[in-house]
Amino acid sequence: MNKQKTILLAEDDENLGQLLQTFLKAKGFQVELARNGKHAYEKFNDGRFDFCIFDVMMPEMDGFTLAKEVRLIDPKIPILFLTAKSMKEDKLVGFETGADDYMTKPFAMEELIARVTAIMRRTHGEEKEEDEIQTIGNIKYDPVSRVLHLKEEDRKLTTKEGQLLNLLYKNRNDVLDRQAALRAIWGDDNYFNGRSMDVYIAKLRKLLKEDERIEILNIHGKGFKLIVHE
């Protein structure tokens, strides 16, 4: 169950962070430790994770804000919050931001493992799609090699084209937030990067038009939506 599963751990308490990292590694997980929310967000964009554990009270970016940003990029990844507070209102905020579970400090390490294992078991059926061949209508896309298998030829996408298509696919039939995509791929959601992304969207539309059922919609004021019409 635990083999090869990678956890993003965001905890600003250095001692607790190292303790949790060591314990989770001993249980067979790969663990990336971030000291604050901003650092965790950068790690999330640069890596591939199966699970997130976020402390709520952190500098740079708190756990709730971090979870919202992560959910815009990957709506399915499990998130567990850690907090020193036990206020009911905080728990409600946590679940509203997409938490799968919530633990109040102090807690037993074995309970943490039990919660993480239970959540992973529950979400195990929801496949991680980053490394799998993606089927978009009649078109296949390999996100590892960034090769789009078209009817006439195979087309190698650029890094940004591939990242953008991957995000659209993960959020298919739902809105991919424009600003979140810009921050994830370009690192900044400024106007010039926005214009650049629009060019990449146009390129992807041109490539995918081979299957007339595929459409990338502009959702005014929000972002884009990849759909395949039946």
CATH superfamily of the largest domain: Response regulator
Structural shape:
elongated
**Cα-to-Cα separation, first versus last residue:** 36 Å
Major sheet details: 5 strands, parallel
Looking at the overall shape, the CATH architecture of the largest domain is: 3-Layer(aba) Sandwich
Strand content: 15-25%
C-alpha Rg (nearest Å): 19 Å
Order of helices and strands: EHEHEHEHEHEEEEHEHHEE
CATH class of the largest domain: Alpha Beta
Strand order of the largest sheet: 2-1-3-4-5
Characterise this structure.
The structure is a single chain. The chain has helices spanning 14-26, 37-46, 63-73, 88-96, 109-123, 159-170, 178-185, 191-208, and strands at residues 6-10, 30-34, 51-55, 79-83, 101-104, 134-136, 139-142, 147-149, 154-156, 175-177, 214-219, 223-228. Strands 2-1-3-4-5 form a 5-stranded parallel sheet, with helices on both faces. The protein is α/β, with parallel strands linked by helices and 230 residues long. The chain folds into 2 domains: 6-123, 3-Layer(aba) Sandwich (Rossmann fold), CATH 3.40.50.2300; 134-228, Arc Repressor Mutant, subunit A (Orthogonal Bundle), CATH 1.10.10. The mean pLDDT is 88. It is 42% helix and 23% strand.
